[in-house]
């Protein structure tokens, strides 16, 4: 016993709209990615800053300094990596500095 299904024009028409939308979305995302790759060669153009919410010499500071060395060697252009210690207020001072983008 075989089961045959018939494909009607309305079934194909229902599939055409979502497929067209997916193709447009794919094209737009490829265009955005292509534009981003053209500018990615000069990253990072500024020094990279790591904000540590603990005092200088603490364990977190030592770990951040180790990460900074590895990060500087691993990123293109070997950027300067700055450790900015902002202790106090249970880390809120450092969190505010990070949120504002100030170091």
Provide structural commentary.
The chain is mainly α and 103 residues long. It has two domains: 9-40; 42-100, no CATH class. Helices cover 54% and strands 10% of the residues. It has three helices and two strands. The chain has a two-stranded parallel ribbon with strand order 1-2. Helix 2 links the parallel strand 1 (48-52) and strand 2 (81-85). The longest helix is centred in the first third of the chain and has 31 residues, at 9-39. The chain is elongated. The model has no long low-confidence stretch (mean pLDDT 78).
Give a short synopsis of this structure:
Helices cover 54% and strands 10% of the residues. It has 103 residues and is mainly α.
Which oligomeric form is depicted?
single chain
Number of domains: 2
Note the beta-strand portion.
Answer: 5-15%
Tell me how many strands there are. Answer: 2
Helix content: 40-55%
* Main structural class: mainly alpha
Largest sheet: 2 strands, parallel
Topology at a glance:
Blueprint: H1 9-39, E1 48-52, H2 59-74, E2 81-85, H3 92-100
Parallel strand pairs: 1-2
Task: Considering the chains and any ligands shown, give keywords for the structure.
103 residues, mainly alpha, 2 domains, two-stranded parallel sheet, 3 helices, 2 strands, 54% helix, elongated
């Amino acid at each position: 016993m075989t089961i045959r299904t018939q494909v009607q024009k309305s079934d194909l028409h229902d599939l055409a709209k979502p497929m067209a939308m997916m193709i447009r979305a794919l094209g737009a995302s490829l265009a955005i990615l292509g534009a981003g790759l053209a500018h990615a060669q000069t990253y990072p153009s500024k020094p990279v800053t790591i904000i540590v919410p603990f005092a200088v010499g603490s364990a977190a500071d030592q770990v951040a300094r180790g990460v900074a060395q590895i990060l500087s060697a691993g990123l293109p252009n070997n950027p300067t990596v700055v450790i900015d210690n902002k202790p106090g207020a249970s880390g809120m001072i450092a969190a505010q500095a990070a949120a504002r983008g100030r170091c």
